[in-house]
Write a structure and sequence with these properties.
- It is a single chain.
- By secondary structure, the protein is of the alpha+beta class.
- It folds into 2 domains: about 5-155, no CATH class; about 205-335, Histidine kinase-like ATPase, C-terminal domain (Heat Shock Protein 90, 2-Layer Sandwich), CATH 3.30.565.
- The protein has 10 helices and 7 strands.
- The protein has helices spanning about 5-25, 25-30, 35-70, 75-100, 105-165, 170-185, 190-205, 215-235, 255-265, 310-320, and strands at about 215, 235-240, 250, 275-280, 285-295, 325, 330-335.
- It has a 5-stranded mixed sheet with strand order 2-4-5-7-6, with helices on one face. It has a two-stranded antiparallel sheet with strand order 1-3.
């Protein structure tokens, strides 16, 4: 604050305000001070200038010392205590200068004037130190907000990258094209499977830089993914989609549905004798819900550490919302908040 480019203007305004304040409160008449108003105003300006510049030099000295030590702290209390010396010097010097310029006043008049001048110096210093503390704390708060925002963006992209890096999409595309050319004339169903497989990873590539996407796009991704799962598990997996049309353009974090369905398969038995039933629907509270019956596996697949914790973290970083998880003996349910889109 003390290094502000308009500090001299602030000094004049502060001194003028202080002078007018004493005039309106009739301080001079109360204490019997009869002096040229311009001289009194000059004393006010002198004190404000000395206190302000003294604190500016003090702040530079303290900042340079902290920089040498590599410390990020800012001892506001230490600066405030040291500034009392600045205020004392400003007050005493203003008093001595006034006495030298106008020596004709009585001893009693000078005692009163001296007390008022020194008191004013300390009051101005206290006011400026309070402003300085407020400016410093606000600056620190803004800096923390910027750092937090940058961290959110970095963490969100890192989380998405962790999902994408599970498989190299370009490698898959190259090999799928070769496989497709080899079996094209023999098995039409295999080609449909490859097409759906390609669609899944094409969507991964398209959304690699997105924190939020419309629910409609997420469903365009999950449908071919569910096709692949149905071919893999047959009657062992039953998926029911029930999405309200008015929610299609609401925003959702990408790849969330795929991860939730994958999580259900990873932790439950999926067989024709014990089908895993998965429901994906939108509820009345504006959430996308993925629900499945619970039938725990004996041989659980090793965790990749990319699951509910990943979704929970990305949701919090991207939107500030909380993932709702409910479980009892029969049902496991995850509610993913949808973000309202103004384009709806």
């Amino acid at each position: 604050m003390f290094n502000h480019s308009l500090r001299y203007l602030f000094i004049v305004v502060l001194a003028s305000y202080s002078y007018l304040n004493t005039v309106f409160s009739e301080t001079f008449r109360y204490y019997g001070i009869s002096e040229n108003p311009w001289i009194i105003l000059s004393v006010f300006v002198y004190i404000c200038l000395l206190v302000w510049e003294g604190n500016r030099v003090l702040e530079k000295i303290v900042s340079s010392q902290l920089l040498k030590r590599g410390s990020k702290s800012h001892p506001l209390l230490g600066i405030f205590l040291a500034s009392q010396l600045v205020a004392a010097v400003a007050g005493v010097s203003a008093f001595l200068l006034s006495k030298w310029l106008r020596p004709q006043h009585t001893v009693q008049e000078w005692q009163i004037a001296g007390k008022l001048i020194i008191l004013f110096a300390f009051r101005i210093n206290l006011f400026l130190q309070c402003l300085h503390a407020i400016f410093y704390l606000l600056k620190g708060y803004r800096q923390k907000e910027l750092e937090a925002e940058e961290l959110r963006a970095v963490n969100t992209q890192a989380s998405l990258q962790a999902v994408r890096n599970q498989v190299n999409p370009h490698f898959l595309f190259n090999n799928l094209n070769v496989l497709s050319s080899l079996i094209m004339h023999k098995n039409e169903e295999a080609n449909i499977f490859i097409e759906k497989f390609s669609t899944v990873y094409r969507t991964l590539l398209r959304n690699q830089d997105s924190n939020l996407i419309p629910l409609k796009e997420e469903l365009e991704f999950i449908r071919p993914y569910l096709y692949l799962l149905e071919k893999r598990f047959g009657d062992g997996l039953q998926v029911n989609l029930d999405i309200a049309p008015d929610k299609l353009m609401h925003q959702v974090i990408p790849i969330a549905l795929q991860m939730l369905v994958e999580n259900a398969i990873k932790h439950n038995v999926v067989s024709s004798r014990k089908p895993l039933e998965v429901r994906i629907y939108t509820d009345t509270e504006g959430a996308l819900v993925v629900e499945n019956n619970i039938q725990p596996r004996q041989d659980k697949e090793p965790s990749t550490q990319v699951g509910l914790s990943n979704i929970r973290q990305r949701l919090k970083l991207s939107t500030g919302r909380i993932l709702q998880v409910y479980q009892d003996s029969a049902v496991f349910r995850v509610s993913l908040p949808l973000i309202y889109s103004h384009s709806v």
